TrEMBL record:
Protein name as annotated: DNA topoisomerase
Keyword vocabulary terms for this entry: DNA-binding, Isomerase, Magnesium, Metal-binding, Topoisomerase
EC number(s) on file: 5.6.2.1
Taxon lineage: Bacteria, Bacillati, Bacillota, Bacilli, Bacillales
Record's keyword annotation contains Cell membrane: no
């Protein structure tokens, strides 16, 4: 029985091939000889998605032009295609699938991996063939071999394909229809586009803008607090009354009622002086989103760079599967981690007595691990010297994963908390002091320790001198989002709960996006020039503000709606929902937006004019001489594209950004000056002059 193993990409296929007895690489696949497959086997691969949805014009020619009267575009049956650049590899895969007696789906063990493999198999017309599923969390040889020895029934995972494909098709429907709808409606208002909208990206943008709008429109208001200064045993400390007041007169009235004056000395009596020893367990193990949030907070790394780097560490067999939303491991992982504790301690450059050799439910629960467990080190533990040789971002992320795993075995953090209440003529003033007793697991991390708040020795009944003061202050606006906070914002559908205990209160979070897609959504918002990130602070651009102003109050601005969609998509994955029902719902939503959006346009605010103004200063199209070259997001294109002009110019060429001034020079003079910084495929940097000939860019080197 000849078996074809379908991997997601060449590097994954190579990891599989290395785990077998004999492997020989040929064009587009590996030939495998191993007792596990007595009938022979081949490992082939995609390049991620080999199959994608067709463009609108492939359904109906009239759908090629952007016109309001062609909306909605809802095909009766969706068509898929293989892009030209990927056809050679697809044909190799298709040929092997035809010969196969059995197909092993060995793409990433998640919904998207299932979609990548099944869409290839379906496009090749081989869905009738029996399938098995490889489901593993690591690319280590022993894990790969064990996975192939324990292959699962492929049909059990078809519902994940249904879920992922439904998400893909619904994103196409919303993106194609709603992007055209708003681009055309804004054009009627004199605002140039295009404007890209999406099922997840648009409510995400709107939540960022809501915070920015709140900050911009924030009006500070005064408030007043009652503070008491004390000195006991030579140590000064301060207590505070629990209430705040909007007017100074209100604070003064309270003092007067209790026979007190601002700045005057009064006697206070300690009515409560409690000391409690408290301890704090180490944080949960990392999911992808918690790792992204932590690394952004600690190092200002972007979520997409964290995902890319942890994926590289996974492919180097150093950490477990990264695209996980789980923060638990099973007993199996706990056993192997326990067995390599000494090696992990040495790798982290630490030595401590193992305080928790047995599993604790905060970290180890078999029932909590559905698809993938938390991100942890593999059995291939690096030495401290090897860690130092990793790239800086790899080193920091690996050390964080290593530290969070070791913390599970370390002693809890111990501290003493003192609560003091002072009665000053009937008014209660309070203060809380903390003193660190044992750093425990905190010694594994390099964050600065919080300064102790040490209070003098006090007991109930002590009388202490006190001076009561009225302190004035102003309310402060909320802070702008950081890039890392966007991940948390999306995961909680706008409920910003970074504290672990607060998150635990939400038994089920209906977030938007998935663990694997949230970073790419943020990148899309950057690419579409809706947001910019400066020193890790996220702001919405004028283009983004324009879009947010016109979608406000619509379902597109509702993260709750998108979260409900995500919830239903997960039901499809659990075989509790259907693709047909979901897509019918999306079609109704699109029709509703086509009807309601024109009513919502109202007055486009001044920021929209800025979008228009930016386009108007660009040069005349060098091809048709009628339109002007306008910013299309990822490139410059002629504004008369509807009249048939297809002139475009790139913003990026051979990894070098082309400036507006250079685009203008190309259009008006037909060439630029000498530009430094182009990079060849071999990685060499060179300089060249760009020349425009017959609408196409050529390079001159003199």
């Amino acid at each position: 029985m000849f078996t074809v193993i379908l991997a997601e990409k060449p590097s994954q296929a190579k990891s599989y091939a290395d785990a077998f007895q004999t492997s020989r690489k040929t064009d587009g696949y590996f030939h495998i000889e191993d007792p596990l497959f007595p009938g022979g086997a081949a490992i082939t691969w995609g390049f991620g998605h080999l199959v994608s949805l067709e463009e609108p014009q492939k359904y109906k020619p009239e759908w090629k032009r952007w016109k309001l009267d062609t909306l909605p575009m809802i095909p009766e049956e969706f068509k898929f295609t293989v892009p030209y650049a990927k056809r050679a590899q697809f044909n190799i895969v298709k040929g092997l699938l035809r010969k196969a007696d059995q197909i092993v789906v060995a793409t990433d063990s998640d919904r998207e991996g299932e979609n990548i493999a099944r869409s290839i198999i379906e496009q090749a017309g081989m869905m009738h063939k029996p399938t098995k599923r490889l489901w593993i969390n690591s690319l280590e040889k022993d894990v790969i071999r064990k996975g192939f020895q324990e292959l699962r029934n492929g049909d059990d995972y078809l519902s994940l394909y249904d879920e992922a494909q439904t998400r893909q098709v619904s994103d196409w429907l919303v993106g194609m229809n709603i992007s055209r709808l708003y681009t055309l409606l804004l054009q009627e208002k004199g605002v140039d586009g295009p404007f890209s909208l999406g099922r997840v990206q648009t409510p995400t943008l709107y939540m960022i803008w809501q915070r920015q709008h709140e900050i911009e429109n924030f009006k500070p208001e005064p408030f007043f607090q009652l503070l008491a200064d004390h000195k006991e045993s030579g140590k000064a400390f301060q207590t505070k009354h629990k209430d705040t007041f909007k007017k100074k007169e209100e604070a003064e009235d309270i003092l007067k009622k209790h026979g007190l004056e601002h700045g005057a000395e009064a006697k206070g009596t300690v009515v409560k002086a409690e000391k409690k020893l408290k301890k704090m367990q180490a944080p949960s193990l990392h999911s992808l989103s918690s790792l992204q949030a932590k690394m952004n907070r600690r190092y200002k790394y972007s979520p997409s760079n964290v995902l890319k780097t942890v994926q590289d560490l996974y492919e180097k067999k150093l950490v477990s599967y990264p695209r996980t939303d789980c923060q638990f491991i099973t007993m199996s992982e706990f056993r192997y981690l326990s067995g390599q504790l000494d090696a992990m301690k040495a790798a982290a450059g630490t030595s401590f007595e193992t305080a928790h050799p047995k599993p604790r439910p905060k970290y180890v629960q078999d029932s909590k691990v559905q698809e993938h467990y938390a991100i942890i080190p593999t059995k291939k533990v690096l030495t401290k010297d090897r860690i130092e040789k990793l790239k800086p971002m790899e080193k920091n992320i690996y050390n964080e994963i290593l530290g969070s795993t070791l913390a599970m075995f370390h002693e809890d953090y111990h501290y003493e908390e003192t609560q003091v209440d002072v009665d000053i003529q009937g008014l209660i003033f309070s203060v809380k002091g903390t003193v660190e007793k044992k750093r425990g697991w905190k010694e594994l991390f390099s964050e600065n320790a919080k300064k102790d708040t040490i209070l003098p020795p006090l007991k109930t009944g002590d009388e202490i001198a006190s001076i009561v003061n009225i302190k004035d202050d102003m309310t402060k606006p909320p802070k702008p989002y950081t890039e890392g906070q966007l991940i948390t914002m999306m995961k909680t559908a706008g409920k910003m709960l970074e504290d672990e205990q607060d998150q635990a209160m939400l038994k089920e979070v209906e977030g938007i996006g998935t663990e694997a897609t949230r970073a790419s959504i943020i990148d899309t918002l950057k690419k579409q020039q809706y947001i910019r990130v400066t020193k890790n602070t996220v702001t919405v651009t004028e283009k983004g503000v324009t879009l947010c102003q016109v979608i406000g109050g619509t379902l597109l601005s509702s993260p709750e709606m998108t979260a409900r969609w995500e919830t239903y998509l997960k039901k499809i994955g659990r075989k509790e929902g259907s693709q047909e029902a979901f897509l019918n719902n999306i079609a109704k939503f699109i029709q509703h937006m086509i009807t309601e959006a024109p009513k919502q346009m109202g007055n486009v605010k001044a920021s929209a004019g800025s979008v228009q103004k930016k386009s108007s200063v660009m040069p005349v199209c060098p091809k048709c001489k009628k339109g002007v070259m306008v910013d299309k997001g990822g490139f410059f294109g002629c504004s008369d594209y509807k009249q048939g002009c297809r002139q475009t110019l790139p913003k990026m060429l051979l990894k070098k950004k082309i400036s507006d001034a250079q685009i203008k020079s190309l259009c008006e003079k037909g060439q630029t000056g000498m530009i430094k910084g182009f990079k060849s495929k071999a990685g060499k940097t060179f300089s060249a002059r760009l020349v425009l000939r017959d609408g196409k860019i050529e390079m001159e080197f003199k």
